[in-house]
Amino acid sequence: MLGTIGSSAIVGAAIGAGVSYLWFKKSVSSKFKHIELEAKAKAKAIENEAELLLKAANVKIKENAIEQETKFHQRVAEVEERKRKFILQGKELEAQEKRLNLLEQHVLEKEKNLQTLEEKREAAIAQAVDAMQNVASFTKEEAKAYILEKVEEQSRSEVAGIVRKYEQEAKNEGEKKANYILAQATTRYAGDFAGERLINLINLPSDEHKGRIIGKEGRNIKTLEMLLGVDIVVDETPGVILVSSFNLYRRAIATRVIEILVEDGRIHPGRIEEVHEKVEAEFEQKTYEEGENILIDLGLFPMAEELVRLLGRMKYRASYGQNALAHTLEVAKLARVMAAEMGGDEKLALRAGLLHDIGKALTQDMGGSHVDIGVDLCKKHGEHPSVINAILAHHGHEEPDSVESAAVCSADKLSAARPGARREVLESFTKRVKEVEEIATSKPYVTQAYAINAGREIRVMVNAQKMSDNEAVLLSKEIAKEIQDKVQYPGEIKVNVIREIRATSYAK
Length: 508
What we know:
Layout (H helix, E strand, L loop, with lengths): L1 H97 L5 H30 L6 H58 L1 E5 L4 H7 L4 H10 L2 E3 L6 E5 L3 H17 L4 H30 L6 H9 L4 E2 L2 E2 H18 L4 H10 L4 H7 L3 H11 L4 H9 L9 H15 L8 H16 L4 E7 L4 E6 L6 H18 L6 E6 L3 E6 L1
Parallel strand pairs: 7-8
Antiparallel strand pairs: 1-3, 2-3, 4-5, 6-7, 8-9
Helix pairs in contact: 1-2, 1-3, 2-3, 3-16, 5-7, 6-7, 7-8, 9-10, 9-14, 10-13, 10-14, 11-12, 12-13, 13-14
């Protein structure tokens, strides 16, 4: 009985478990269907949203394409405007070139070349725009700057080529006449100046003495030039030889040495050295006596022996073409009168005026400033402080600290400004050369500039990596124009710009 009941319970439990399993399975299946339907609905919604986003993206892409096309047309318009301006500039250059003494057929040919240049500009602009489109990193401003830079560079190069061609033709046509005029002007000016200021003539008893002065294999003339420090010119002129030098003192010694040798008749290296030593000693004594006589006449003894000798030597020194000793005596006497009128010490003013340029006696041998040399000499020999102050003050290194110094400064200006007193040669030349070199070195890409040929030519070296041959032509014209506008000079100055070629212009 009990066994039957137990079996029934087990069967009932099994049936219940099966029923529960079926119910659970049905419940789960129903839930999954619900989830599946929900997922399909969400997928459909996402698909619809994606289609909307795609349509919006397509619209945006079209808008961007339209905007880019508009910007492109704007850039092209800007480039065209810039091109038009460059064409106008080209026409202005053409008009300027017409005023450069070119013939009518040259002008017509230039117009054709400028037309070709315009076509090349258009090609360059189109090429630049294409390159710009392929470079995504370019901004609008960068692209404009790039195009303008390339167009300007090409235009400048082409125009320079045209200028160089016609400039050379014009130069060739006028070269003969210009050379003739320059030769005549130079001959008329240089002959008088050289004859008066730079050479001494020595008359010879006969032309036989020219051979003696030259000597065997030129030994005598070489010895003379080496010892005397001058140039000796033996040419076809009968009965004379020339002694040439800027140094008046050496030229005077050389002239006396050769005169003694000619009179004596014995001319050989040993005799030349002997006579030179003798003449040099005589000149030293002569310059000392010259200075001594000046001091006696002015009543200024005592004075250091070195200063006396240098004072006499100033007879053989010139400044601006004015004899230094004559200028010194003029200043000293004017300063004495001024100091007397102002209640100063006449003798001190006279002494200061006499020594104010004493340094000039040594500048040709030592170099440097005559003011500094003069101050050192006067301090060395214990001269009065007013004398030293006058030396410094007459060129503005100090302010005059006494009546005597002020008198010397005024007298120096009066002596220099007197009509006919000076011929401004060396000093004005040095200033002019400096101005010309500064103009050249102020230009871009110029590495070096120096004046040659007595300041009538300037050579300008440029950076070959940054400047083309054609641009060198325009640079030479710019420098020549600025020199013409800013510098005062006689004749003309030739401007050579050197890279791989030389481009030459003249400031007339």
